[in-house]
Amino acid sequence: MLVTCILINRTHWRQVAPVLEKLRARCEGAFGLRTMPIEDLITILRPLGFYNRRASVLRRFSQAWMEREPETWQDVMRMPGCGEYAAQSWQIFEQNERPCGPVADHKLRWYLEHRPEVMR
Length: 120
Prior knowledge:
Layout: H1 2-8, H2 13-26, H3 29-35, H4 38-45, H5 51-67, H6 73-77, H7 84-94, H8 106-114
């Protein structure tokens, strides 16, 4: 989920979906992402733009994940490439909690408004 949050930054889901599918087919988990040849990673990320930056962030993210998987939204905020959107998504979809502060993203707000039954 957090890789998706990193990929969706500055683009649309319709562009991210096929890239994410290729990533899933090529590597499994943080170790696979960390060990994939950088040229291959860049080739997969190229349709999204900012591919060099994204490749670098994903490499640093996967290394951080292998060192210590996040347990809280605060841990997510410390992960490379993750910010408020990723942390709030983590709270909603992984911890099944409402975020503490205001939710800026309109799709996350919609989800909270229309799917309150899934929240603790």
